[in-house]
Design goal:
Layout lengths: L13 H14 L5 E2 L11 H12 L12 H15 L8 E4 L3 H11 L5 E6 L3 H9 L3 E6 L10 H7 L4 E7 L11 H11 L6 E5 L24 E6 L12 E4 L2 H14 L5 H12 L3 H22 L14 E2 L10 H12 L1 E2 L1 E2 L11 E4 L4 H18 L6
Parallel strand pairs: 1-10, 3-4, 3-5, 5-6, 6-7
Antiparallel strand pairs: 2-8, 7-8, 9-12, 11-12
Helix pairs in contact: 2-9, 3-9, 4-5, 4-8, 10-12, 11-12
The structure holds pyridoxal-5'-phosphate.
Pyridoxal-5'-phosphate binds next to loops.
């Protein structure tokens, strides 16, 4: 008995593996500070929790339509229209269990064997995993520190071809915290004019965790609305990772295809969770404001601390709750350093290579942890590093 051959092409998310190793060390009595998992350490705001409890009592405990309850799709359409300065109708939206299924369904719905998909590298590992799984050709778009963790539009233009079926963009970005500049967006939109068959998946799951200015979506640029599928959701903005609730917005033909996949996969999202989602989108937003202010404080602590470590240098990201320090000065490879920090300093983080080959020379820290724990992690690393580091070649 054996798995299908296609399974050998399916990747995974290392964060969950590192978490399991960290938990195993904890079971042996070690104290580990968790800076590996990308999940807000706040509770879901009370008004959203109460809305779900009320919805259960009101009978929202049955199957609903595959693409979502009409009232939830209407709320998503209004929210996306307002936040992206475009006009989206309810039938151009779908609610799914988390943001991830929008990646899964977009790739399943659009990509045939041999089709090219441009995706950010380093980037969220599920992009590359799914492209390979369906037999597509994964074309990495390098995200470089020297560009402030944006990409070089000229490099993007060189990667486009008549075989490009899909371009995946992620701004604000995991793992770097980078934000796509407006000039980059304009160049992307202009370059795509020559490739009318290429669609764009714009992953904007961190759209509300922004410290400077306002989130800007490529969907709002002329000509982009019809070719973009938006991914956003509730996990990060309203600390709802365990609810499994996200959404897509895009052309009706693609949303209808996703609804068909939903029928074949999970039937529908929990009905009472969708009622809570309306409260998240339309209710008071002070919990989000407070969470982002707290993240900003932590960002400043971790960036300053990382820059004081031997062999580290770290840019200050403008969004998300990740930092992606350059560790080339330690003389160590990313994986070896991440392993050593876990085993010897008790700090769990991820090697940059968990996000693709262009992540070598970097680590990713999630600062979804208290200032106190971040400071303890920095002190433990400061203590451990001189014992680990190989002097950098000059
Ligand atoms: N996209 C990016 C860039 C992410 O970082 C994540 C989660 O870490 C997701 C999508 C998936 O979010 P969800 O947990 O809602 O499925």
């Amino acid at each position: 008995m054996k798995l299908a051959q296609s399974f050998s092409r399916l990747g995974t998310e290392t964060a969950f593996e590192v978490l399991a190793r960290a938990r195993a060390l904890e079971a042996q009595g070690r104290r580990i500070i968790h800076l590996e998992i990308g999940e807000p350490d706040f509770d879901t705001p009370t008004n959203i929790r109460n809305a779900a409890k009320k919805a259960i009592d009101a009978g929202y405990t049955h199957y609903g339509p595959a693409a979502g309850l009409p009232e939830a799709r209407k709320a998503v359409a209004e929210y996306v229209s307002k936040t992206r300065c475009i006009s989206v109708k309810p039938e151009e939206t779908i609610l799914v269990p988390g943001g991830k299924p929008i990646i899964f369904f977009t790739i399943l719905a659009l990509i045939d064997a041999g089709d090219e998909v441009i995706y950010p590298n380093p980037g969220f590992p599920i992009y590359e995993s799914m492209i390979n799984y369906v037999g597509g050709k994964a074309v990495p778009l390098p995200i470089r520190e020297e560009n402030g963790f944006d990409f070089d539009p000229a490099e993007f233009e060189r990667l486009l071809s008549s075989k490009t079926k899909l371009v995946i963009l992620n701004s604000p970005a995991n793992p770097t915290g980078g934000v796509m500049a407006e000039a980059t967006m304009t160049r992307v939109a202009a370059a795509l004019k020559k490739y009318p068959d290429a669609m764009v998946l714009t992953d904007e799951i961190y759209s509300r965790v922004v410290y400077k200015g306002k989130h800007r979506s490529i969907m709002s640029l002329p000509g982009m609305r019809e070719r973009c599928i938006l991914l956003d959701g509730f996990s990060k903005t309203w600390a709802m990772t365990g609810w499994r609730l996200g959404y897509g917005a895009g052309p009706k033909w693609l949303i209808d295809a996703m609804a068909k996949l939903a029928t074949n996969d999970h039937s529908c999202v929990a009905s009472f969770a969708q009622i809570a989602a309306i409260e998240a989108l339309e209710g008071p937003q002070d919990a989000v404001t407070a969470m982002v202010a707290e993240f900003k404080k932590r960002r400043d602590v971790i960036v300053k601390g990382l820059n004081s470590l031997p062999g580290f240098s770290c840019l200050t990201p403008e969004a998300s709750f990740y930092v992606f320090p350059n560790i080339k000065g330690t003389g160590m490879k990313s994986k070896a350093l991440a392993d050593a920090l876990l085993n010897q300093a008790g700090v769990a983080c991820l090697p940059g290579t968990s996000f693709g080959s262009f992540g070598e020379g970097y680590l990713r820290f999630s600062y979804a942890n208290s200032v106190e724990n971040i400071q303890k992690a920095l002190a433990a690393m400061k203590d451990a590093l001189p014992k680990l580091a190989v002097p950098a070649a000059r």
